[in-house]
Amino acid sequence: MKLTFWGAARQVTGSMYLLELEDDFKILIDCGTDMDRQKGKKEKLLQPYSLFPFEPSEINVVLLTHAHIDHSGNLPNLIREGYEGQILCTSATLPLAHLLLQDSAALNQKLLKHIHSNGSRKKSRSGKKTKINPSELFLEKQVNETVDQFVTVAFNQKFRIKKGLDVTFIPTGHLLGAANILIEVEENGEKKRIGFSGDIGRNNYPLLQDPQRFPEVDYLICETTYGNRRHQAKGSPEEELATIIKEACIDIPGRLIIPAFSVGRTQALLYTLNKLYTNQGFPPIKVFSDSPLALQSTKVYEKYTKQLNEEAQAFYEEHEGLFDFQNLVYVENMKESRAVASHSEPCIIISSSGMVQGGRVEHHVMTNINNPYATILMIGYAAEGTLGRKLLDGMRSIRLANGNEIPVLANIRKTDVFSGHGDLDDLTRFVKYQSSDKLKKIFLIHGEYKSMTDFHAHLIGEGYNQVEIPEWGQSYTL
Asked: What residues does the Metallo-beta-lactamase domain cover (predicted)?
């Protein structure tokens, strides 16, 4: 069989891997949006008039590890270009992926309107022009067609796709419904086992179960987002957040702005705040959750409480809910969102996107960036070039689209206590479930290249010598 790396190869986003069996049966694992946009040789490999480097109609089945857009975001384009088969995922992944794809379609609709009015280049708040490719912009119709092809599979139950081909979805934390996938293939009387990590979660994360031990395989495809670093936060999520709230909103009459992804990170935040307010009697500081997508995702989390960890299930039973608490306000429309800016009392604003690149949080950040009584708390990964990364790197002023500059006077803080990604120790634990003597090859994907090379060296030191860092489009015979 042949494995080709069509995404998240020597970069973070765009997860997409093609496994071709000897009988020409083709399995696509993930189909994510590529937000890194490597140029040059990649475009030369694309088929004419297609967004994909292969013929979508020839794919037999798609396996989806979890709902995040960098893993699911190109599925509607795959359908539009002719894929007609099933998309296998877990039960909770389906509604979350549906929400995220609908959100992308709504954004695409706005971008198409912009293109028709102003051409294919769009200015960000920072004044930088970005190129928009209209052929990538799927709409709600394509999302609905995509969701119709989803088929849900239970965790830890072997699912037979056809004779000689079985898959098992194994819980990995990170996000509700997220899985690592075991593929078992029998060809010419020989059995082979291939393991695909989605995004590997971490132990003791709010709401989610710990990543489950992964069985031994012949070939392992492993993500490397935190492949060269460990989480710095030492306290629990409640302890970390309590300290920051005290300093930002109680010691001074300030406001705390938390850019957070609507699906996953916001739920962890709200649940932690609920525990603080319920169990520790925190002062009644108003909390604004400013994201309709977060509200919808929160409802999905409460629907699938049986898939959450034991602590969350017990809290739900005792309090008849996970996220609702006094002084929590869900902001549903733009008029209400703008009104939050004029709230005069200390408050906490949770809004997306987590990288401060698009979404309502941009307005909150820009409104408060020159306010020394405001704190902007970064709680997750921010890619190069995003406003979130620039703030973390210490930028002193922001240039607006009109050419004016405003100083950064707000306090910029960060914590990784809410990071949904496993760190170096978690990734090492995931790999060390495998016997170094039996494992034929490890492929490192889904990470910045420096993270991959550092993790490669780390694994060599741990006794794993068959480690590869594939390039985009590179194929291997298994």
From this structure: 13-229
